[in-house]
UniProtKB/TrEMBL annotation:
Organism phylogeny: Bacteria, Bacillati, Actinomycetota, Actinomycetes, Streptosporangiales
Listed transmembrane segments: 12-31, 43-62, 74-98, 118-141, 153-171, 183-205
Native species: Actinomadura graeca
Signal peptide coordinates: none
Keywords carried by this UniProt record: Membrane, Transmembrane, Transmembrane helix
Protein's recorded name: DUF4386 family protein
């Protein structure tokens, strides 16, 4: 994969992931109380497509860094490892949540599975995403593969994600902003990530067209 192809591949993947997340996030705010199973399963399904595209994005980013500045391939590898781990952890939490929703009308306690997703969606996800974004910011800053604002934006988002790491100490009520699975910790962070991915995807595609 040459540099131009890496830019195009990563840009398309980032844009696709952003589009899926932009469709998913509003579903968190449709109901003020406990949402029906159809709502939860719909947003999980859309989220799975977003995660699949994100997996391609982090893989393509590592390849781009390798092509632009081989001496910083290690930074791209850290970003890729953190991103892939984030995808894996979120897939597990999505599977647990979907399984609990499907089994809610059966003689088992669905809260056993759902309770385990709180820290996966929240604190663990925020730490992994912060590491991913910080690594992306460092790699972009050093390689200058994209405009300077992209690295700064990644650093800012990494700091925002770190700010939500202690949310596990503030309960697990989805209606609360700052909680283990509060709408700020999960839905808001997903929305911010989606628009960052969209900006990155568009910038990468434009750089590919420019033949940079």
């Amino acid at each position: 994969m040459n540099e131009n192809l890496a830019r195009r591949f990563t840009g398309i993947a980032g844009t696709a992931s952003a589009a899926a997340l932009i469709l998913e996030v509003p579903l968190y705010f449709v109901y003020s109380d406990e949402p029906p199973a159809s709502n939860v399963l719909s947003r999980i399904l859309i989220g799975l497509f977003a995660l699949a595209a994100l997996l391609l994005f982090v893989t393509g980013f590592r390849e781009l860094v390798k092509r632009v500045a081989p001496e910083y391939e290690w930074a791209g590898s850290i970003a890729s490892a953190a991103g892939l781990t984030y995808v894996a952890v979120t897939l597990v939490s999505s599977g647990l949540e979907a399984g609990a929703v499907i089994a809610a009308d059966r003689p088992i306690d669905p809260t056993i599975a759902v309770d385990g997703t709180y820290i996966l969606y929240g604190t663990i996800g925020r730490i992994l995403l912060a590491l991913f974004l910080a690594s992306v910011g460092f790699a972009l800053h050093r390689t200058r593969a994209l405009p300077r604002w992209t690295s700064r934006a990644a650093y800012v988002l990494a700091a925002v994600n770190l700010a939500f790491v202690p949310s596990l100490f503030f309960g697990n009520t989805p209606a609360d902003f700052y909680a283990a699975n509060g709408w700020g910790t999960t839905a808001l962070m997903g929305a911010i990530l989606s628009y960052w991915l969209l900006a990155m995807g568009v910038t990468l595609l434009r750089s590919a067209r420019a033949g940079r």
